[in-house]
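Take a protein:
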Amino acid sequence: MRPILFILSVLFATLVEAQTTEILDTIYANDSKNVALFFPEPIRQGITGSENFVFTYNREKEQYFGLLQAQPGKESNLLVINRNGSIFSYIVRYKAQLSKLNYFVPLSNSIGNEKPKSADSIQTEISEKSIDNDTYYYQKFCSYLLDRRQYLGRHTRRNNGVIMRLENIVFDKEELYFVIQIRNNSTLDYDLNFLNLSIETRQKGKKKSLQRLYVEPIFKHHLPSKIVINETVRLIYVMPKFSLSNDRKVILELNEKDGERNIKMKISHKYINNPN
């Protein structure tokens, strides 16, 4: 399940075109009924600004509607982006008794569009901005994940005082975020040679063998070159979305430079296919 809570300023930083007049309505919801919002184009992304509001929609197959629920608490806001880039913004509030359960949103309610109309001569500049926006989003979302505390279970390996733990795997948009903790409880600093993530496949047949394919991260957040004595670091690898069959698993490999305190962790396909 992808997280739907995040800092709305990240999305606003990517908006490059907006209308001068903003239409901002209030939508009421509660925890006992689903409030349905129907949009003129399929929903590509929807985000609420507070944990007591949840907006769910089909992330695998884009559809025209989403469902809003709320817990008692302060008002917040909902930002929805359609497949064509149209942006819709609403104030959301909790209300015990609801008089309206369905909202049919016209295109005229859009406050703008994230995709500008541009000439061919500035396509390169736009592509560069898109890359910068992706990097900015990764940075902000990684910071958000590091502020959370959520664990998958017993995914911990150690070697001579060096401890590596896989804290979380989060699916967002088209990426998987691997949240990793490394602690140095030894009496020597730890110089990092590499931290690799690869997919291991067990070949079937009489002569069983293993084949390993390295996967390059899209983005690395807070990857250190050294972990000093008694230091704990938390970092994130952003990987392209993938799923695994039951004969495959992920290998997370920590390697020490000029040392032998290496750690290898195997992650079952079920954790990759069912991220948070």
User: Anything to note?
Assistant: The radius of gyration is 22 Å. Residues 123-147 form the longest helix (25 residues).
